[in-house]
Predict the structure.
Amino acid sequence: MLAAVMGVLYAYAMFQGGFVSWFLFCSVLSIMILNALFIAYPLRSLQVTRSFSRTMLSYNESMEVTLHVEKKQPFPFLFLSVEDDVPAGMEGLGQSAGTIFFLSPALSLSHSYDIQGSRRGEYWFSAVTLRTGDLFGFITKEYDVDLSRPVTVLPRLRPLKRWSGLRNENQESTPSPVRMMDQSYSVAGVRDYIPGDKMTSVDWKVSARSGKLVTKEFESQEGQGHIVIIDNTIEKGENALEERIEFAASFMDYCYKNGVPTGFGFSTGEDVLLEEGSKRAHFQNIYQELAKLQADDTSFDEAPFFRQMFHGRSLLYITSVMSEARMEELQQVIKNRNEVVIALCRSESMNEEEHIRLEKLRGTGAVTAFVSMDENAFDLTS
């Protein structure tokens, strides 16, 4: 159709002559040439990058995402649409994840937007989509730039209530996972103060010299730490699993701020995932594992962790179910001179048989803690 229009205008200019007819022909010809340039310019020649203000977010923390487009020549696209693919689960904070640049000759273009991590998980940003077109809307070009990169949202942390009061009336001493909270450890170094750290762990001398608050870091001592094992089956639904994960993360945060050496594993694993440690990097690894932890469709009774043989360890087992098979496995763990604390999330949904099994476990030396969650904290009762 465009060729027909040009043909008509050329014939008109040839037969009519004069300034107006040739001006009309040359004007339309210029527009056609410019339109052809818009269509011909290769989008793949543009260099696109994505930058994050951070790649690890706490619960409900926001971050800034910036898209950069670099052109090799100052070519003014009629329009250039740049759109990011934001993964589901990341919430926008008002700004659009894309924008349109009109007739911009700049060599460097950028667009920023903010998003918020409202649910734990590992989120993968994938492609950035570029779009442009011609003057008349006949042709639209699109090009996807693969910029795969993950962002981790950590589980929500809540304070723990009444943890230190847990104990088994059948035992003369308090189990290690409970007793550990008030013990002292050898100072291995210092780190920057984090809101929530105990004031008793602040190193005031180093703080005075450095001009900022720093907190003591404690070294792990063999035999003085404990292992947190989380039930990652989906026996009572995803919401129950999310509550167990949040409690595990909150407990880890409590241990970190108190310098308690802690390890981590899950019930469907065959061994401890991370052995005891008390350094910041160690707990960061645990938080990341909890953020990425997915429900395992393995049957609750087929989880292999408690079938392995280990001795002299201190375990905190976080679950929402207590089957006959799991009770027998835990009894064997206790017989092998291991200390066991069982944290029961959503215990109100447990039936009478499960409560009877818990009583039997108490009789063999286990400590049970019933975990209830509200908006602000986890409350634990024995």
